[in-house]
Amino acid sequence: MLKNSKQFYQKQNNRIWKIDTTLLELYGKTLGFIGTGSIAQEAAKRLEGFGVEIIGFNTSGKKSESFS
C-alpha cells in the first residue's frame, strides 16, 4: 500500500482526482493474526473501523475479545 504513496501524494497536489485502483481496499477483507498478544489486539481494534473481519490464532487456546 505504501509503495504507491508518493504517486498518490503527487496526484493529490496536482488535483488529479482519478480513482487509483492500485490502492488496497480494506473493507470486507479478512485478516488473520498469528498470535493474539497485546500488539495484535491493538492492531485488531484499529482495523475494526475499516470493516475488516479479524481472525486470531494463538497456541494457548485462550479466547480474546478482539478476535473471532
Textual characterization of the structure:
This protein is of the alpha+beta class and 68 residues long. The longest helix is centred in the middle third of the chain and has 11 residues, at 38-48. It has one domain (21-68). Strand 1, helix 2 (38-48) and strand 2 (53-57) form a beta-alpha-beta unit. The chain contains 2 helices and 2 strands; from the N terminus they run H-E-H-E. A two-stranded parallel sheet has the order 1-2.
Indicate the topology.
Layout: H1 5-13, E1 30-34, H2 38-48, E2 53-57
Helix content: 25-40%
Rough shape? elongated
Radius of gyration: 16 Å
Number of domains: 1
How many β strands by DSSP?
Answer: 2
Defining traits:
68 residues; alpha+beta; two-stranded parallel ribbon
Provide a quick synopsis of the model.
The protein is an alpha+beta fold and 68 residues long.
